[in-house]
Design brief:
Keywords: Membrane, Transmembrane, Transmembrane helix. It is globular and about 60 Å long. The longest helix has 32 residues. Helix 6 packs antiparallel against helix 7, helix 6 packs antiparallel against helix 8 and helix 7 packs antiparallel against helix 9. The chain has one domain: Orthogonal Bundle (Arp2/3 complex 21 kDa subunit ARPC3), CATH 1.10.1760. It has 247 residues and is mainly alpha-helical.
């Protein structure tokens, strides 16, 4: 069946599953089915909440701003810096914006929905829709799911936003450390999808591209420091914004 689909192709997808070194498609399919089921299944037990109209407004604005930053503002700023796997100005801005949105909403699903809006607008104004629906699934259930997973792990109290101003100094220090840890975790997790899932699977599946695991490993290690720092900065910014608007 896979070979038949490969011979036909679909929306620019070659369905090439025979590229040497690519992640077996069975593993990827299992991840994209089982991981969302487990994560969002847990959310029903740990975080009971429903989205409001203002939540959807935040999500839509965040997705739109992410596209504006990554493809216009960020790409312009990146021209003044040397091309390097250690620098991801466009992606860093997107991550920063999404963390602020996640701080305002703090409900499981905000990550996946934000990335779905981002992907839709990115395709409309930049990429085109070739390769879909794979990119919708990829963005929502990697970057988006990682943000949602941390929200679930904190039981909806992402970046310790719900706290009393009257707590002591020692607790304030612990809160600051906890915010930094949560932001760093999200940043580190978000350094994984592009090298692993895209270079290791989607790129060869869609385009028949060569898989180079030395490049993948290097890209992961190069991305982690910057993404972790941006995750921390986004966490503190999101915490301040959420408290400023009364969330």
């Amino acid at each position: 069946m896979i070979n038949e689909v490969y011979n036909m192709g679909f929306n620019g997808i070659k369905f090439d599953t025979s590229v040497p070194g690519m992640i077996p498609w069975e593993i990827v399919v299992a991840y994209f089915i089982l991981t969302p089921l487990v994560v969002y299944g847990l959310s029903r037990r740990l975080v009971k909440s429903s989205f409001t109209t203002i939540d959807f407004v935040y999500i839509s604005i965040g997705g739109a701003f992410s596209v504006v930053w990554e493809f216009y503002v960020g790409s312009f700023i990146a021209r003044f810096f040397p091309s390097s796997p250690f620098l991801g100005i466009g992606f860093w801005g997107r991550l920063f914006i999404l963390l602020i949105v996640a701080s305002l909403v703090r409900k499981p699903g905000v990550g996946a929905m934000s990335l779905t809006i981002y992907t839709l607008l990115a395709d409309l104004f930049h990429y085109g829709f070739a390769g879909q629906p794979l990119y919708f699934i990829y963005e929502a259930f990697t970057y988006g799911l990682f943000i949602d997973a941390v929200i679930i792990a904190t039981r909806g109290n992402l970046f310790n936003i719900r706290y009393s101003d009257s707590i002591g100094t020692s607790l304030k220090i612990k809160r600051v450390v906890l915010i930094a840890i949560e932001g760093a975790i999200i940043g580190i997790l978000c350094a994984i999808p592009d090298p692993i899932f895209y270079l290791g699977f989607l790129n060869p599946l869609i385009h028949g591209a060569i898989v180079n695991w030395a490049t993948i490993q290097f890209d992961v290690l190069a991305s982690v420091p910057g993404d972790a720092i941006v995750g921390i900065l986004g966490a503190f910014a999101g915490q301040r914004v959420a408290r400023a608007v009364g969330h």
